[in-house]
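[09:14] KT: can someone run the structure on this one? pasting the chain below
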Amino acid sequence: MDAAVPVAPGSRIAIAGASGLIGSALARSLSADGYKVLRLVRRAPRGPGEVRWDPSVQRVDTAGLAGCAAVVNLAGAGVASRRWTTAYRATIRRSRVLGTRTLARALAALDTPPSVFVNGSAIGFYGFTGDRVVDESAGPGSEFLSSVCVEWEGAAEAAREAGIRTAFARTGLVVARGGGAWGPLFPLFKAGLGGRMGNGRQYWSFISLHDEVAALRHLLFTPSLSGPFNLTAPTPLTNREITAAMGRVLHRPTLFTVPAPALRLVLGGVANDVLGSTRAVPTRLLESGFTFTYPEIEDAIRVVAGRQGTPGVG
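[09:31] RB: done, structure tokens below
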């Protein structure tokens, strides 16, 4: 099929993971602009806006996907919601790989496949890079999440082979109150209990929720874009710098320090996500003409804290 086919206004767009932090924000944004959003659900559909799927057994109602111009896959077990036991690590990997493989094969088998498949991924692909800057040209790291991301992206091969334009959204830490790694930080800082984590020198590659949704839309609606894109603000900052910014915006002290051993004891494997350093930049996103609304951390925090207005989502 023609990889340059644009997604027409008012088209049907299916979203897997539409109940999550990013997926729900994307669904609201698309619906507000007149697109017909179709949500993939694991239960019996409650109306024409839902399609049933079960990635654990690689099954999806392909008839329900017929006529979709685009599909977005953001489904996967939360990495910040539970301790990373051996069993939960397997769940993290399986939920992403099987979900992507299920959708990619289903889309490839349609008589008229969608013009674009945007699949979730993460900057965990690069592993821990210290203060070394990495963009989409860098190879994978050697950490657990790196191997997950490699398999996750590789599971979309059937869609690519079928000629469906396929883009991977390698998302960083999303600045938002409603979930993700950042969600628990706001109540802590507002209570005056915030502070740096570990030595504070690790880089956090962040992105506002508003810009995350805008970037996903950019990947959906720009017919020339395929392959990996880092969804991160242009200037990553250290945890120490972000802690100071949180304190300034929320007008709270940031005197506390959470030692690395304590974080690992409480959070288990997910502590690596906040203690590890990945300095990722969005080279391909910027080269494609994308403009960030909130490239600076203080603006991103202010929007979430309700201290300034925000266009659309955020």
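[09:33] KT: thanks! Residues 309-314 have pLDDT under 50 and may be disordered.
[09:34] RB: yep, looked fine to me
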